[in-house]
Amino acid sequence: MADPKVEVKWKDEPDAHDYPAAKDYLELLAGPDVANTVVEELLKAPVVKKKAKDILRASGLALADANNPYVRRDLEKIVAGKALSPILVVRGDFRTGVPATIADGYHRVCAIHYADENIQIPVKIAALP
Predict the structure, then answer these.
(1) Residue 53 belongs to what domain range?
(2) Residue 12 falls within a domain, yes or no?
């Protein structure tokens, strides 16, 4: 696991390949038109910061094991001082019981949670159309 005293570095914007990955995932949850619209909104969305623990809570997802190879890879990047890509999220709606969707970056969120659950993660958030 990462040392909580290690500073986590972030890229200013998500990697270009994060958007197609988000679209692929979102197409499992909605049709291609909805997925395309959401990704277009993610591309335009500003980067904001949210805590790792809050992103996981809002998504309703369980924390992946620290030994998961993708979580481990991101923990190693943190320790090595490599910048991580911001997370892509689709806003949920607590009024209707719809959780937020981590469209790309679930393993990064989990890695940050292990480093320190209160670390502010850069995230782009889009609403469903």
Answers:
(1) 18-126
(2) no
On whether residue 11 sits in a domain, the answer given is: no
Calpha distance 115→60 (Å, rounded): 20
> Could you tell me the CA-to-CA distances from 48 to 12, 45, 72 in Å, in that order?
11, 9, 25
Distance CA 47, CA 44 (A): 9
101: number of CA atoms within 13 Å, CB side?
18
Whether 83 has a pLDDT exceeding 90, the answer reads yes
Using one digit for the tens of pLDDT, what is the confidence trace for 30-49? Answer: 999 999 999 999 999 999 99
Give me the number of domains the chain comprises: 1
Q: 75 lies in a domain?
A: yes
31: tokens are: 């049709």
The CATH number of residue 94's host domain is 3.90.1530
Q: Which residues contact 66 (CB under 8 A, 6 or more apart)?
A: 1, 72, 75, 110, 114
Angle at 116 between CA 110 and CA 118, to 5 degrees: 95
